[in-house]
Design goal:
The chain has 137 residues and is mainly beta. Helices cover 9% and strands 47% of the residues.
């Protein structure tokens, strides 16, 4: 758990472009993951919004998270890759129309970026469509 930063994304509509996203995660004794999502639009210092949600994780299907940001409407998100030291992850939605790169660090090395691009290609995503957040470089 802990703090995760969205360092890149693909598939977000232009009108909803966000400059910085930070997700604080914690888990309660019932196994429900709490999500506190903090977003800045347009610039890292732009208009700030906060969304709270929850996620469920089933140990029988460890690569699938069911997340709800609005009431009890849950959507599935797929963890495509989690690096061995648990600091960088690749996630997509069920329709594979959106893709995110989250990291516990605000910046990534060139080796990490090359690895992310390689992983994206191996699961069928186009790395050229990935938008890297300038706040993290």
């Amino acid at each position: 758990m802990g703090s995760w930063h969205e360092v890149a994304q693909s598939g977000r509509p232009e009108r909803k472009m966000i400059a910085a996203v930070n997700i604080e995660t914690s888990i309660n004794d019932k196994g429900i993951i709490r999500l506190d999502i903090k977003k800045n639009k347009f610039t890292p210092y732009g208009p700030y919004t906060e969304v709270r949600g929850k996620a469920k994780w089933n140990p029988d299907y460890p690569g699938i998270l069911k997340c709800s940001l609005y009431m009890n409407f849950f959507r599935e998100y797929y963890i495509l890759y989690l690096d061995p030291d648990n600091t960088t992850t690749l996630i997509c939605n069920r329709a594979a129309t959106r893709f995110w790169v989250f990291s516990k660090h605000m910046s990534l090395s060139e080796n990490q970026i090359a690895g992310i691009i390689q992983k994206m290609e191996s699961v069928g995503f186009d790395p050229d469509k990935l938008i890297w957040h300038p706040a993290y470089f």
